Amino acid sequence: MFLLNHNALHRQPLDPADAETLGVAGADTVERFLAHRDNHLITPLHALPALAAELGLGALHVKDEGFRLGLGSFKALGGAYAVFRLVLEEASRSLGRSVDVADLDRTDVRAIAATMTFACATDGNHGRSVAQGAQLVGARAAIFVHAGVSHERIAAIAGYGAEMVRVDGNYDDSVRQAARVAAEKDWTVVSDTSWPGYERIPGLVMQGYTTIVREALRQLAEPPTHVFVQAGVGGIAAAVAGHLAIVLGDARPTFIVVEPARAACVVAAARAGHPVKVAHDQPTVMAMLECYEASPVAWRVLARAADAFMTVDEDEAVAAMQRLAQPSAGDPVIVAGESGGVGLAGLMRAVADNKAALGLDGGSRVLVINTEGATDPHRYAELVGISPADVLAGKLPAGALS
Fold first, then answer.
1. Which domains does the chain have, with CATH numbers?
2. What is the C-alpha to C-alpha distance for residues 41 and 64, in angstroms, rounded to an integer?
3. Considering the entire predicted model, what is its pTM?
4. Strands of the sheet with 254-260, listed across from one edge
5. Model confidence over 93-111: pLDDT tens digits?
6. Catalytic residue list
7. pLDDT tens column, 287-340
């Protein structure tokens, strides 16, 4: 599935609320918060010249979020950041004075945080971020996980002291149950998807992701001409596309959203002109992207800032994982989880089928984002045929060519 953006809002300025959320001032705030994180490091940007040449491109870079804040996923930037902001806002109200990130360890601020419980639904990575953020500030977390979330991912979230709530059904079912229970118990929902009347907190989550594109632009010698970013409900894609639109204006790159064919809710929104719920059939191996309705806030940005929408199949996602684990000579090894390499999978499909439509050629400078490392190491080994530790150690699976 490939669809150019023919929405009437395409290439129009962002909604003022979204421009404020995803603009320079918001990104500055995120960086200021990150400066207070003990384990904050800029994530690597890898050049893949051999694969770029194979695809007939001028350059290909991968921003590797598998190293982000000890969580192995870009989600580390969103949920925890929103938790910090919400705790500080509540502390400022309760104490009657301005409270900033440097005050998070103060006894009076932590006493207020201890009265707060943050709830969310998750496929795995967002829940870890919310749980980690709550633990760091001394708050509580209740994380709702659906039937498709692996035991390893559940254990990783529980390791941050979160209360785990199991939900029958899929991700969308867990979102609804988290919102219902949180309303009953007066908990604060920190969701990465939005719904009518609930937009500001998902906006804060998206604001956290602006760090990724800001870092990448600083690391690149020249801005990219094309960017491929995967989507679940659309938050990461919207954050990257929106920030690029603001800081680069008319010089911004062609932006392509990539989704699993089995959970293509952003493609469905592009067809309908608004978010719609897509049917749930078979689960997708791209577990972190298994969402069936786009976030309205994310769609509002993507309707304006995305240029094309496409899907990839199950085998293409796995092939991208394997290709990053066993690269061409001279290219670096990259550990990408089931959803991490989907942007690259989209690029490879686009080169084969939609090169002319997207203007991909020997002068193209392409950026993709590895959104997660091996956040479920057992599943990674099943799909790639080798453990993530052995990939990083340079060991090849049996039968692989060196």
1. 2-74+203-392 (3.40.50.1100), 79-191 (3.40.50.1100)
2. 12
3. 0.95
4. 2-4, 308-312, 254-260, 226-230, 365-370, 59-64, 45-47
5. 999 999 999 999 999 999 9
6. 75, 123
7. 999 999 999 999 999 999 999 999 999 999 999 999 999 998 899 999 999 999
